[in-house]
């Protein structure tokens, strides 16, 4: 009986414990069911989150364009390949969507992506053995072109899939590279690293969106997926003040000089002195941002490389004297040498021989160091000259809207430094500082702030978000002083003694000043020997009312013994300035070649046959390419009355277009052709056309796919 009672008590105790536990658990379940929460977490939201898939909608980076809307930088799609290797992904055994034949897949994909078939096979098999969902193919499987993607798709291999990824593309290759800059993918996002790409990265980047939906355990979207889309906002479009045609002319000219003279550095800027707009700017060495490997120079030397400017500084010394009322062009002085102090004697550039007693005007024309030394030391005084140097802002940045500007330094401690600054020795300045100061002379005494950005535009609404305006940053001299300085600078080019004679243009008058600056030697003092100088020219045209001002500097060119020191700089200035003014439709103010001027316009070709159009354009000095064998003209790449740059290619599309041989064409010309023919084009690498996917003579139709491989 005792045993039974004990057993009964134990049973009651256990039953009570289990009853309590059951009530606790049941209560907990009821509470969870009623509240839908566990440990403060909402189970409905938790479940929804677990079965919700989301991915980013990447914003397209904004385009960079020239002043006329020509594309200079934009996003181009590239592709990465991956393979689904698990059988679980294929619900229909007759139509598998996973890799079913490892050997065949590896052997057929390998040659297209430039990989080893054995390596691909090993990756696929390892993925299967490790029970993975998918595998990728490393570097070889990423960055694929549209052409490669299409070739792989034609193989119709089960399990092969692609992801699309944007890559920044620069259609003109080496073209204003240190202005436009470079953007590359960094941590999954295209990010600006240099130039405008860096300066306006936030505006160009845009804002990514997101899409989310609910799916089952296999990743398949549910029937009611509760899909939510947050649209991406693409980056703003940035229009530059650069003119693509003038920039192209400058790039081609610098390339010729670079090949012929092998200089250490070259910088050139073309600017509108009335507005501050930079029309063209380039340097050598430069680089192709599509292939940024082994880059010699990332810096924009036009704004970040201060150097002693040499005699171009004399125009500002003379302008200061005119403004102070201390300039008498007919007054005589003794040229040759000038003793500054007990230890320093300044010499004229002809080894101190000089030209005996000459007028101050002739001294300027001959680029006499002694002339400007007299002006500073005996006419206006060192303190007053320093005030003018600061009025011309030689002691500070210009404020150009580019990253990396470095100002020069006014070296003005000792008497010798104060005098040598008058002819550009000791004191340093950048090309952008020199050309900015020159706008005061070219623009009635008003010095304008240089700018490279024209406007920023919203890509969705085409509304102008920001518009740059002309900004006057100072009035260092009066209009009267500017006008007189222009006349003096014009005589530097036109006079019998003028050092600027090599810079004379055929159709336009030029006002300017040459510079031959000594280069500091690593061992102290200055370098010597032919070519061991910084040769420069700061010129404006037309001389009476300049529409363009241009600064050119060439450092240590390799010159033949018989060549003029001015050969590289004058070639750049004359070729670019003359053609740029014609292209801008500026009326010539010199009439010696009026007949030639009319030949530089595109004639009226409306209604002409193919043969007649070709002849008319060739007579205008153009390199003509005819697309097709049709007798009637469908389109041309040039318009009536358009200004012609010498050697410019003109494309005539007939009513029966066929594919031409484009070997050797520049990327700009190929893109122009594809636009005329409305082709679906893909470009590979950069430089000049090497291979084309459509054979010469093939009949062309709208939206035909054309892949072109380029090579430097």
UniProtKB/TrEMBL annotation:
- Please provide an example of a Pfam family that matches this protein in its UniProt record: PBP_dimer
This entry carries the following GO cellular component terms, namely: plasma membrane
Q: Which SUPFAM superfamilies match?
A: beta-lactamase/transpeptidase-like, Penicillin binding protein dimerisation domain, Penicillin-binding protein 2x (pbp-2x), c-terminal domain
Q: What is its EC number?
A: 3.4.16.4
Where is this protein localized, as stated in its record?
A: Membrane
Reaction(s) catalyzed by this protein?
Answer: Preferential cleavage: (Ac)2-L-Lys-D-Ala-|-D-Ala. Also transpeptidation of peptidyl-alanyl moieties that are N-acyl substituents of D-alanine
* Residue ranges occupied by any PASTA domain in the UniProt entry: 656-712
Keywords, alphabetical:
Membrane
Presence of the UniProt keyword Membrane in the record:
yes
Among its keywords, does the record have Membrane? Answer: yes
Q: Which InterPro entries match?
A: Beta-lactam/transpept, Beta-lactam/transpept-like, PASTA_dom, PBP_dimer, PBP_dimer_sf, PCN-bd_Tpept
GO terms in the biological process aspect are:
cell wall organization; peptidoglycan biosynthetic process
Single annotated GO MF: serine-type D-Ala-D-Ala carboxypeptidase activity
Q: Give the pathway annotation.
A: Cell wall biogenesis; peptidoglycan biosynthesis
Family to which this protein belongs:
Belongs to the transpeptidase family.
Name of the protein in question: serine-type D-Ala-D-Ala carboxypeptidase
Organism equals Terribacillus aidingensis
Q: What is the lineage of its organism?
A: Bacteria, Bacillati, Bacillota, Bacilli, Bacillales
């Amino acid at each position: 009986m005792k045993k039974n009672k004990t057993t009964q008590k134990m049973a009651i105790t256990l039953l009570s414990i289990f009853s309590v536990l059951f009530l606790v658990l049941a209560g907990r379940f009821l509470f969870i069911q009623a509240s839908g929460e566990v440990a403060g977490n909402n189970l409905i939201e938790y479940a929804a989150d677990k079965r919700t898939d989301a991915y980013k909608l990447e914003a397209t980076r904004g385009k960079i364009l020239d002043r006329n809307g020509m594309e200079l930088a934009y996003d181009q799609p590239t592709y990465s390949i991956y393979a689904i290797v698990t059988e679980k992904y294929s619900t229909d055994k007759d139509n598998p969507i996973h890799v079913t034949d490892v050997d065949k897949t590896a052997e057929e994909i390998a040659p297209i992506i430039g990989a080893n078939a054995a390596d691909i096979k090993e990756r696929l098999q390892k993925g299967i053995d490790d029970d993975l969902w998918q595998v990728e193919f490393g570097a070889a499987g990423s960055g694929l072109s549209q052409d490669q993607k299409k070739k792989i798709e034609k193989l119709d291999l089960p399990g092969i899939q692609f992801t699309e990824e944007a890559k920044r593309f620069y259609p003109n290759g080496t073209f204003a590279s240190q202005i436009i800059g470079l953007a590359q993918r960094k941590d999954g996002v295209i990010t600006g690293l240099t130039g405008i790409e860096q300066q306006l990265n936030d505006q160009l980047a845009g804002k990514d969106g997101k899409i989310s939906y609910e799916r089952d355990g296999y990743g398949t979207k549910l029937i009611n997926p509760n899909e939510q889309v947050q649209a991406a906002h693409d980056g703003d479009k940035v229009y530059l003040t650069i003119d693509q045609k003038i920039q192209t002319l400058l790039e081609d000219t610098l390339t010729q000089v670079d090949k012929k003279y092998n200089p250490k550095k070259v910088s050139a800027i073309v600017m509108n002195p009335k507005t501050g707009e930079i029309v063209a700017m380039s340097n050598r060495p430069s680089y192709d941002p599509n292939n940024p490997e082994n880059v010699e120079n990332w810096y924009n030397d036009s704004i970040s490389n201060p150097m002693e400017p040499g005699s171009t500084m004399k125009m500002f010394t003379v302008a200061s004297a005119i403004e102070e009322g201390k300039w008498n062009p007919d007054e005589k002085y003794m040229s040759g040498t000038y003793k500054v102090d007990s230890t320093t004697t300044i010499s004229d550039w002809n080894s101190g021989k000089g030209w005996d007693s000459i007028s101050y005007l002739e001294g300027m024309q001959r680029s006499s160091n002694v002339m400007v030394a007299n002006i500073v030391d005996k006419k206006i005084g060192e303190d007053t000259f320093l005030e003018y140097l600061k009025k011309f802002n030689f002691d500070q940045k210009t404020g150009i809207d580019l990253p990396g500007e470095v100002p020069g330094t006014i070296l003005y401690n000792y008497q010798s430094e104060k005098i040598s600054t008058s002819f550009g020795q000791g004191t340093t300045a950048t090309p952008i500082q020199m050309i900015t100061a020159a706008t005061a002379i070219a623009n009635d005494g008003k010095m304008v702030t240089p700018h490279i950005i024209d406007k920023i535009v919203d890509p969705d609404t085409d509304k102008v978000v920001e518009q740059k305006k002309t900004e006057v940053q100072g009035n260092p001299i009066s209009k009267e002083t500017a006008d007189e300085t222009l006349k003096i600078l014009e005589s530097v080019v036109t006079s019998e003694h003028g050092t600027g004679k090599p810079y004379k243009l055929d159709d336009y008058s030029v006002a300017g000043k040459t510079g031959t600056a000594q280069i500091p030697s690593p061992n102290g003092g200055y370098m010597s020997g032919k070519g061991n100088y910084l040769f420069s020219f700061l010129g404006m045209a037309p001389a009476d009312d300049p529409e363009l001002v241009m600064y050119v500097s060439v450092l240590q060119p390799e010159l033949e013994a018989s060549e003029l020191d001015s050969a590289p700089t004058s070639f750049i200035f004359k070729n670019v300035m003359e053609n740029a003014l014609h292209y801008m439709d500026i009326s010539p103010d010199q009439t010696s070649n009026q007949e030639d001027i009319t030949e530089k316009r595109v004639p009226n070709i409306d209604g002409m046959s193919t043969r007649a159009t070709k002849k008319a354009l060739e007579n205008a000095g153009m390199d003509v390419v005819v697309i097709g064998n049709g007798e009637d003209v469908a389109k041309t790449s040039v318009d009536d009355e358009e200004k012609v740059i010498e050697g410019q290619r003109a494309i005539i599309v007939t009513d029966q277009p066929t594919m031409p041989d484009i070997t050797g064409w520049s990327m700009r010309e190929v893109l122009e052709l594809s636009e005329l023919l409305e082709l679906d084009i893909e470009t590979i690498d950069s430089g000049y056309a090497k291979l084309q996917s459509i054979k010469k003579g093939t009949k062309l139709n709208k939206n035909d796919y054309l892949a072109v491989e380029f090579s430097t």
